[in-house]
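To fix ideas, we close by showing one paired sequence and structure record:
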Amino acid sequence: MEVIYKDVKDKMDKTLIGLKSELSRLRTGRATPALLDGVKVEYYGSLTPINQVANVSVPDPKLIVIQPWDQSAIAAIEKAIIKSDLGLNPQSDGKIIRVPIPALTDERRKELVKLVKKFGEDSKVSVRNIRRQANETLKADEKSKKVSEDDSRKGQEQIQKHTDDYISQIDKILEAKEKEILGS
């Protein structure tokens, strides 16, 4: 049964990490290097993350500065940012790229909050599916007499506690992101 608990915890941890990763890519009106994590640059024939071809820094909350290690990559980086659907407009002086972060409109904030809630709901569904799979495994083990009925019930209760804990963590993450979006 310890194997089942470890598997449940690992899968639920991955769900939480995935949610945090998705949320970090949302533009909230504040500059952050994570905003460009999903942007890939056409560099020497392959798609490469921006942070692998340039230094990405945030000198102030409304500006991202990108300093390419190879000056020939500037045009490709600008093109990748424009094509990324982040609504950003990079400006280059030939050596560095400045990406001003425009303020969010109220309408865009509401869209982002809906998107945050969707990501959260998807994560909760994933956690519940992990619980369901673990419970099915326990019931199958009980049927095949690998575990007793009492152990199976205790295991299911333990898995439910894990599920409740992770759903609570997801709710806290979502609440913080909503405040960030609506408050910035």
